[in-house]
Amino acid sequence: MSTSTIEIRRARPQDAQALAEAHDEAWRAAYRGLIPGIELERLINRRGPAWWETAVRRGSRISLIMFGDSVAGYANYGRNRAKSLPYAGEVYELYLKPEFQGLGFGRRLFSHARRDLTSNGLASTVVWALSDNDYATGFYRALGGRAVARSSETFGTQVLDKVAFAWAG
């Protein structure tokens, strides 16, 4: 019998390659058919190992969820960037490789990010998701997120709606 552990920890510079791979797989799975193909590939290609290593070295809050020795996913979070919204913290990104979705890993990673934000004085939290990404919007609703704002983002020539979900402190 083999046992694998599940652990959440801060990303380290030597995780850059694994982070880039997790990002690539998760984004392709999440956005294929939503973001135009050329734009999606452009966004993914901007986030190679060097980008991730720099982000970690600069102190970005990036936590990994590990399954044994493998990166199953990551969360990137910090201060809320949308000054028009009255929430202190923001989960910028939360992504899992497709084979780790639907197993409770995302819930664990999100809870970890919220606890980390709260312990750093950022108790209320907001996260944005594309409105047409049913998997993401369903996930944040299931976690108790309340839709509090709408906006849009342009990808090439396509404008996509997005929704902000929030949790009080």
Structure explained in plain terms:
With 169 residues, the protein is of the alpha+beta class. It has a domain at 6-123: Gcn5-related N-acetyltransferase (GNAT) (Aminopeptidase), CATH 3.40.630. It has 5 helices and 7 strands; from the N terminus they run βαααβββαβαββ. A 7-stranded mixed beta sheet has the order 1-2-3-4-5-7-6, sandwiched between helices. A hairpin with a 2-residue loop joins β6 (146-155) and β7 (158-167). α1 (16-31) runs antiparallel to α2 and α1 crosses α3. The termini are far apart.
What key phrases describe this protein's structure?
single chain, alpha+beta, 169 residues, 34% helix
Please specify the SSE layout and strand pairing.
Layout: E1 6-10, H1 16-31, H2 37-45, H3 49-57, E2 61-67, E3 70-79, E4 89-96, H4 105-119, E5 125-130, H5 134-142, E6 146-155, E7 158-167
Parallel strand pairs: 4-5
Antiparallel strand pairs: 1-2, 2-3, 3-4, 5-7, 6-7
Helix pairs in contact: 1-2, 1-3
Percent strand equals 25-35%
CATH topology heading of the domain at 6-123: Aminopeptidase
Low-confidence stretches: none
- Could you spell the SSE succession in H and E letters? EHHHEEEHEHEE
Number of helices: 5
Biggest sheet record: 7 strands, mixed
CATH superfamily of the domain at 6-123: Gcn5-related N-acetyltransferase (GNAT)
- The number of E-state strands comes to 7
- Would you state the CATH class of the domain at 6-123? Alpha Beta
Based on secondary structure, the structural category is alpha+beta
Q: Note the overall shape.
A: globular
CATH architecture of the domain at 6-123: 3-Layer(aba) Sandwich
Strand line-up across the major sheet: 1-2-3-4-5-7-6
Radius of gyration: 16 Å
Distance between the termini: 42 Å
Please give the share of residues in helix.
25-40%
Mean pLDDT: 96
Keywords: Acyltransferase, Transferase
Pfam family, one: Acetyltransf_1
Domain N-acetyltransferase: 6-166
GO molecular function, one term: acyltransferase activity, transferring groups other than amino-acyl groups
